[in-house]
Amino acid sequence: MHNQKGFTLIELIATIALMVLMGLIIVNNLNSLFSNREDEDVRDFKELLENAACTYIDLSDPLIKQKKQTCKSSGCTVTTNVLIQNSLLDEELKNPLTGKAITGTEIIKISYPNKEKTCVYEME
């Protein structure tokens, strides 16, 4: 009997198939990891704008009353330009969806359902 060293064609094909399968699993997991990170970036951006708008309303509430505006009764809006001017946002803040700096025209809506303030930025 003759002792042969090496791999058979079947063993090589099976090894390559397993390597391809593992590669596909890794690539799929990396794609979902990057997708989750993008979702987090968008959520953080939205939350940052909303928190800045709510802070602005809290700080300017006496001014709103002096001007006889009725933000609490009918709701109001704040633009990112106002938030930048009041140092609540950085003018170089970038929208994670577009990768571009905010324009100053983004609008955050403030309302008081059930007498509790909510600030909402609806991304396009």
Shape by Cα distribution: rod-shaped
Helical percentage: 40-55%
Question: How many β-strand runs?
Answer: 3
* Sheet/helix structural class: mainly alpha
- Kindly report how far apart the N and C termini lie: 75 Å
SSE pattern, N- to C-terminal = HHEHEE
| Strand proportion | 5-15%
Describe this structure in words.
This protein has 124 residues and is mainly α. It contains 3 helices and 3 strands, in the order H-H-E-H-E-E. It is 55% helix and 10% strand. A 3-stranded antiparallel beta sheet has the order 1-2-3. A hairpin with a 6-residue loop joins strand 2 and strand 3. The protein is rod-shaped.
What topology does this entry show?
Layout: H1 9-66, H2 71-74, E1 76-79, H3 80-85, E2 107-111, E3 118-121
Quick overview of this protein structure:
The chain is mainly alpha-helical and 124 residues long. It contains three helices and three strands.
